[in-house]
Amino acid sequence: MIKSLLVANRGEIACRVIRTARRMGVRTVAVYSDADANALHVRSADEAVHIGPAAARESYLVGERIIAAALTTGAEAIHPGYGFLSENAEFAQAVLDAGLVWVGPKPHSITAMGLKDAAKARMIAAGVPVTPGYLGEDQSAERLQAEADAIGYPVLIKAVAGGGGKGMRRVDAAADFAEALASCRREAASSFGDDRVLIEKYILSPRHIEVQVFGDAHGNVVHLFERDCSLQRRHQKVIEEAPAPGMDEATREAVCAAAVRAAKAVDYEGAGTIEFIADGSEGLRADRIWFMEMNTRLQVEHPVTEEITGVDLVEWQLRVASGEPLPKRQDELSINGWAMEARLYAEDPTRGFLPSIGRVDDFHFPHHHARIDTGVEAGAEISPFYDPMIAKLIVHRPTRTEAVSALRETLDEGIVGPLVTNSGFLWRLLGHAAFEAGVVDTGLIERNLETLATRPEPSREGLALAAMRLAGTPGATPWSSRSGFRMNAAPRRDVRLSDQFGRTFTTELPPEPAFDYWPGEDATTIDEGGERFRVRLARADGGSGGAASDGAILAPMPGKVISVDVSAGQSVTKGQKLMVLEAMKMEHALTAPFDGVVAELNAAPGGQVQVEALLAKIEKGEA
Ligand code: ADP
Ligand code: ADP
Ligand code: MG
């Protein structure tokens, strides 16, 4: 067994890997950029090495620095986590060439699955059903169009080197093909440095089903059943579960056997995921599930599989990398109960899911409901440099219904502030009738975006009552003095409350006691028309939401202005798009926080902006 391990990653996955390594008595080495000097993953490890500036390109993506850090600290092995260098075959080879153990598949297996076209060709040869389409041998626009016409619309154009949901275009009619192709190629060239594409039949009623596989160096491969990741936004997973709703035993056997064949075809070692797309229009059927791609690493959503199988996948990774055989045979693995994971993000669904950057002052989740995988703690910084995921909330219950309500309770009781999060969005999504019934497809979120992404505010009455419960009514009980709030000369007191979405509200305590409450509760719930607001007294200094309430439109992260949709002096309405910023390779619309006038405008298309730069100012009133 390896005795020491360098974790070439950050955030929750670095913490996750370190946790298991420690439990197994393996010494851990973290690496960190300037932005992560105080991060949780650094403090969780036995040792940490600084590897460069905040930008991933200059730190977490610099293979030589990471290998040098392993050599100087005497770490025997490198675990890449997910993202960053995890699917980079050259890096895996360089790790091996340096005499270190690579916790992952052999470089040739990564390469075989790295490009979607080559991977599909390989799978066809191995007898794995693949999504019908054209693999793109001839990349001329004419040929691609002709192939798309032959496949029949809708089709999906995919960058062969794509990943992370980028480089994909759905085309519904022949007339739109040329333009979609050009735009897909531009994005593929800029994101992946490779503009080649393939074309697939766009599967209707699509469900994302994937199978966890595991191989060892002795030629054994097992599967650890399926996950359903159909709840997606822009091809990115939002909620994942295992097993898949509506999967019968025969279909499960067929798809899991296909996954094992796929892994064996590339000599697979370690943890991997075979992703399939299913046409779910008539339930899950073995003849309507096709191979999409393989992810040759540990997956973000691996915890749901761990929960239903009782296997620690990171432990298996470390054992297999050390040359041990798989700890269990296929017939020793089974599904127990239902697990579900929600990805909690620092982003604002009401503003086009714009990342919400800044310090996390409050961070608390009750652990009795859920497993919380996170790299964040109170005082941590969500920086513009990396993925703004705050935590993965994972529940495991005997049934799916119980899992859904446990996950909602977790969201209810969790507190993250003053950042805005997608917690309310997740809460509504989990309560959506189709989802609760297990009727899922990848378009569910998009179709219901308007209701899922709105965020009602608690009523004035609700806030006033909550304030009384939290701050107490002066003089109402003999114990009220304990709270430090006392009736004095002022007839009324303003109380500031913050909710689980990071919003701050001001309410007044009435001059006369209306109810006999005594303070002491930490947080209280306002339950109104199916919405739940979990509120607490806001910190005296907690200046959250300042930007929105005073109308200053600040750049949430460094980036480039793509378009400006308003002009100075123009009247705007709440929610109206002001401009679009491109940052972290994604486009983010900045919108008006309330009805008003564009009093100041400091942005022009093409301009580069710094984080917190004042881009515009909206003032209340009319033009
Ligand atoms: P998962 O199924 O594990 O969520 P994803 O493909 O969504 O897999 O990616 C997992 C992580 O890796 C995410 O943080 C994603 O942003 C990152 N990632 C995946 N592919 C790429 C890529 N080609 N370039 C940059 N980041 C990527
Ligand atoms: P990535 O490497 O970005 O993860 P994938 O090929 O795994 O790319 O596709 C990402 C998502 O796009 C899938 O989870 C699915 O929701 C959707 N998708 C992919 N291929 C198809 C298809 N042929 N038909 C319908 N949806 C698809
Ligand atoms: Mg994928």
Automatic annotation (TrEMBL):
Residues 120-322 form the ATP-grasp domain. GO terms for molecular function: ATP binding; ligase activity; metal ion binding. Gene3D superfamilies: 2.40.50.100, 3.30.700.40, 3.40.50.20, ATP-grasp fold, A domain, ATP-grasp fold, B domain. Keywords: ATP-binding, Biotin, Ligase, Nucleotide-binding, Transit peptide. Residues 1-450 form the Biotin carboxylation domain. It comes from the Bacteria. The keyword 4Fe-4S does not apply. Its cofactor is biotin. InterPro entries: ATP-grasp, ATP_grasp_subdomain_1, BC-like_N, Biotin_BS, Biotin_carboxylase_complex, Biotin_carboxylation_dom, Biotin_COase_C, Biotin_lipoyl. Residues 542-619 form the Lipoyl-binding domain. This is Carbamoyl-phosphate synthase L chain, ATP-binding protein.
